[in-house]
């Protein structure tokens, strides 16, 4: 097995791990909705957890971008320097507002955002 194949296996494993972590954040958000009696605190926790999941999904997206590059190189049989996840990302890393915008875009993706407004509404109506 060559270095690029090993990298793919490691990246894929971490990509799936981020998915599990995002699900755990959603479960904690649900628990906070049920267990936290102070509505203001519960809403603040939901916002914090929503943003945390957005950060996780942004990190996962970076892994996914590298996975796609590795897969394309493996499929085409072309050379791609292995183990360059962080170097590649650093070369295109946005600064300040651009980085915050990435996180906010992740937060608004339907797969991330769906439960949070519903849980917030549940808190307000309860």
TrEMBL record:
Keywords: Membrane, Transmembrane, Transmembrane helix. The chain crosses the membrane at residues 20-51. The keyword Transmembrane helix applies. This is ABC transmembrane type-1 domain-containing protein.
């Amino acid at each position: 097995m060559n270095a690029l194949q090993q990298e793919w296996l490691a990246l894929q494993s971490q990509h799936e791990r981020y998915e599990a972590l995002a699900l755990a954040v959603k479960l904690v958000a649900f628990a906070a909705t049920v267990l936290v009696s102070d509505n203001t605190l519960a809403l603040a926790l939901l916002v914090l957890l929503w943003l945390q999941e957005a950060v996780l999904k942004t990190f996962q997206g970076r892994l996914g971008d590298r996975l796609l590059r590795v897969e394309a190189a493996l499929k085409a049989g072309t050379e791609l320097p292995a183990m360059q996840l962080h170097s590649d990302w650093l070369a295109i890393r946005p600064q300040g507002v651009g980085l915050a915008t990435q996180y906010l875009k992740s937060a608004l993706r339907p797969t991330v955002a769906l439960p949070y407004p519903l849980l917030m509404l549940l808190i307000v109506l309860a």
